[in-house]
Structure formats: structure tokens, C-alpha cells
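Sample 3 of the quickstart, ligand succinic acid:
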Amino acid sequence: MPKKADPLTIDLFDDFTEINPRRIILAEDAVILRGYATDIAVDLIKSLEAIITQAPLRQMQTPNGYTMSVRTTSCGTLGWVSDAHGYRYERIDPNTGQSWPPMPQTFLELANQAAKEAGFNYFIPDSCLINSYEASAKLSLHQDKNERDLSAPIVSVSLGLPAIFLFGGNVRSERPQRHRLEHGDVAVWGGASRMAFHGIEPLIDGVHSLTGKQRINLTFRKVM
Ligand code: SIN
Ligand code: FE2
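Result:
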């Protein structure tokens, strides 16, 4: 995709120029940036600890009454929630009655830069969903479709234990590709692939030096 000049971010985001650009093209407007977040992972995890203290990870209920195997929380203006009433975004964390913790600047910059690297300029997320997977936790194939602004991409950062990422087409019946996502990998999909079905296979047990027995995923979205 052609790169446009991006005056908004040129001066603000100089920190990521050293990043290794290894990329796997998944589909039109969909890419994995291998190791894109590795150098700042320790910082990200430190920020995460503070977020999780304020807005603890919890297993949400699906509208069908199942308990999700992943534990979830959010930071940013809007947090993703699921319960008997459906999937949606809320400004207040239903578990604490407080606003979600603000999105750290490092998160915002990483998401903005990764989106730009994938061809999506000016991505300013207002929500970061934090998913924690332990052994056998998974996420079934789904589309991200609760966001009002579908012109913005999804930026998804993997930390800790590796997992198999499923990336399908815009219809569920299309057989998904399988890619191993490692610590520091960032997947970005939008545009023609914005409605791609995706998911995570059951996590294989293990221990990672920075996250212990978990894989953590940060999913950045522009909801409004
Ligand atoms: C998601 O689809 O919300 C998360 C995907 C992942 O954990 O990589
Ligand atoms: Fe998703």
C-alpha cells in the first residue's frame, strides 16, 4: 500500500524507527509484523500490571450463557464487555463501577505506528481489550463487529506464550490460515479484511519469562 505523509505522528512517534519490519502478508490489508513490539514488551507488561490492579481480569459470560475461557479487561475510553445482554462497549467497568484505566501513551504509540506500518495512517484507538490466555483457553472464530467505526483497522499485540492464530475470510465457511504468534508479534487487519473471521486455538501449556503461564493479547480498536 502506498505510504502517505502523516504529519500528525511524524514528530510524536520517533521511537519505533529501529523496529524490524519482517512481515507476513495474510490477505489484502492484513499483515503480521513479526517482533514489532519485542523491544518495548517489558514496558508494556509493566503498564499492564497497573491496569490489571485497577480493572482486574475476569471471565465474562457470553450472551448464550457460556463462560469465556479467556480472562479479559480493558483500558481506554471504552471497554469491551459481554454478558447476558450481549457484546458491547461501555465507558464504565461493570465490575468496579469506575472508568476503565486510561490507555498508556506507549500503547497508543505502538498501535498507531503498527497501523501505519501496515498501511493505515492516523489510527488513534479509543479502546484496548486485554485478553489473558492460560493453558487450553481459546477464542472461537469470530468477527470484530461491535465497533461503530469500521474504517479503522484492528491492531493486535501478542505477549508471552505463543499461540496459533486463525485468520479466515469474510465468511465463516472459509478455511482459516494458521499462524503461530510469538511474543512481540503484532497483527493488523482492516480495509478489505476488516471483517475477517479470526480466533485463537487452545493455548498449549508453558512458561514465559515475562508473563509466566499466560499469553496476553492487546487488541486496539477505534470504536467510535
Ligand atoms: C481477539 O480476537 O480479540 C484476540 C485475538 C488474539 O488473542 O490474538
Ligand atoms: Fe477479535
